[in-house]
TrEMBL record, chain B:
GO molecular function: DNA binding; sigma factor activity
Record key words, sorted: DNA-binding, Sigma factor, Transcription, Transcription regulation
Occurrences of domain RNA polymerase sigma-70 region (ranges): 23-88
Identification of the protein by name: Sigma factor, ECF subfamily protein
Amino acid sequence: MAEHDPRIEARMTRSVELLRARREPRMGAEDRILAQLEATVGGTPDGGGSDGAGPQGGAGSGGAGAGPLYAAKIVLATATLTALGLGALRLGAVLLGPSPAPSPARSARAEAPPPATAPALTPTEAPVDAAPSSQPVADESERPPASVHGNAKASTPPRTAPEDSGTSANADAVAAELALIEAARAAEGPRAVIERLEAHAREFPEGLLADERELLWTLADCERGQLDAATTRARSFIERRPSSPLVDRMLHACPELEARMTKADQAGHG
Amino acid sequence: MVGLMARGTPAASALSDEFKALYRAQFAFVWRLQLHFGVPEHQVEDAVQDVFVVVHRRLADWDGRSPRSWLYGIARRVASNHRRRSARHQRKIEALPEPRDPALEGRIEDRELLRTIEAALAGLDPGPRTAFVLTEIEGMSAREIAELVDASPNTIASRLRKARAHVAAALAELDGDLARNRRSHG
């Protein structure tokens, strides 16, 4: 049997190591997704969704020749990420700051090994017994809550997404990103919007709000009639994030862009 | 105003301490599960986010036990939705992805090993594949896996044996390929 051949065993061990490494989360993804969760589900029931969602002052409102419907669509497209999302992310920035230690009772629930005896549950919720892990990968639940992956390789562009959300530097970085994106959203006219987005791109090329930057940028290009640029940007975004909810918002807010993309897709399939 | 929420009132956030602790502890596990369930690599971030959106919504219903069992069920359903949704964008990604670690790319043997094990796993039925991945990658015991997938530990052990034999056979076949590669690069 091949698996009992020491050479094959060694190869098996190595290939499992490689597979494990290959499946490790992308660097920065943990913090990025948490920030996005803050933005998308972090709105408080009493205000997160509607607070500030009014259509005043959105990017591109009143654009020459765009028409009120078009402007309203852009406002709508960005409203979710701005009023709800960014508002909630602002909250996130506060929460990511040097907050007090989590309540031991609550956080322990996520980390404590499950008890040896548990009531019967449905199949998908069947309890996992506290059998010790003897395999190479330690139980994730033993990781400290704020840990960062040890194998993350550092490569630091101007400013990157925070790596450890338990520090005040994180809160500062998120707040700084937020301020830039909000400034872009509030800017008058697409040119001003883009200037502010450029600032964000310079400071946070891989920032937590890079997707939101791309959405605003694409719509600003669209609004000033630069459809080639908007299309290029949109294509690149869709390639990277094909299932992002921002894609629909982007295309819906810029019908010309959607028409172009659809035509190109049809040509590609035809 | 959300933005005026005072510091030190985390209870007012939808992302509670409990959620964040669970997120931090299980993020990598959920990530790997999405890959295991066949979500294309470039969509894993979105899928993981969706998992935790569901987790956030259902946190109050969770009994606090067996986070991995609970997450496994959610992750599987989310992955299934993602695969369906992404199918039209993305058929070819289901094939074997290239390693993205440049250091790895430089090592032909490692690259071949990785390709081989991924191909071998892709050729397995879901049961043995899951048994192999949860054992070898997640370090779970047969009993844990049995509870997770609602099967007996004996069944898991049998699936694992089958998976190992299959992977080992694929790795054994690699000998010829590696020798050819060495010759062609030597």
